[in-house]
TrEMBL record:
Membrane topology: Single-pass membrane protein
Protein name (Swiss-Prot/TrEMBL): Cytochrome P450
Organism: Dioscorea zingiberensis
Domain of life: Eukaryota
Cofactor(s), by name: heme
Comp. bias intervals (Basic and acidic residues): 88-97
Similarity comment: Belongs to the cytochrome P450 family.
Cell compartment(s), UniProt: Membrane
Residues reported to bind heme: C120
Keyword annotations: Heme, Iron, Membrane, Metal-binding, Monooxygenase, Oxidoreductase, Transmembrane, Transmembrane helix
Transmembrane feature ranges: none
Length: 184
């Protein structure tokens, strides 16, 4: 929260509320959203796929047209793909190209919107909207948890991933943003 607020304070004029056009100046805020989506995916997995030819994965060969399904979370969470990735660490995305830049989609540490040809076409729109909203919430309000217990990020089993236990927080308008918010 402190790092994101510092970044916003350095790049947005005092008394002005963050706007979508400010997002290119806020890479750490982007990293926070990427890390959140890495840990808590909006969907459990991808729809089942069918192959048109024999397919071998880890010494198991499947005949053509056999349906298979995959879970995005398995590739993005700690221990996936032989890598250790514990905890909430937005810095893991620092210095990386934005998804979709350059050659192909090969960065599998961040795949909440799928990958390759079947990647979500609305990824950029959704990401920009959510990043703008989270940025405004960080900029304009002080937040504190209503409980000292650690947040349970496990979701319920369904197509989307609703929280098993809601996160409760208190907020107060930051004094420096009262005038800007009163003009809305």
């Amino acid at each position: 929260m402190k790092k994101a607020r510092t970044e916003i304070g350095r790049n947005i004029e005092p008394g002005r509320i963050l706007q979508e056009s400010d997002l290119p100046k806020l890479p750490y805020l982007h990293n926070i959203l990427k890390e959140t989506l890495r840990l808590v995916l909006p969907m459990q997995g991808l729809p089942p796929r069918a192959s048109s030819a024999d397919c071998t994965i880890k010494a198991t060969t499947s005949p053509p047209v056999q349906c298979s399904s995959s879970t995005l979370g398995d590739a993005a969470r700690p221990g996936a793909l032989g890598r250790s990735r514990p905890g909430f660490k937005p810095e893991r995305f620092t210095g990386e190209k934005e998804e979709g830049e350059g050659e192909g989609f090969t960065n599998f540490k961040y795949i909440p919107f799928g990958a390759g040809r079947r990647r979500c076409p609305a990824e950029q729109l959704g990401f920009r909207m959510v990043t703008t909203v989270v940025g405004v919430l960080v900029q304009c309000f002080d937040w504190e948890p209503m409980s000292e217990e650690e947040v349970d990020i496990k979701g319920l089993q369904s197509l989307t991933v609703p929280k098993g236990k809601h996160v409760m927080a208190k907020y107060n308008v930051r004094e420096c943003m009262v005038d800007a918010l009163s003009r809305l």
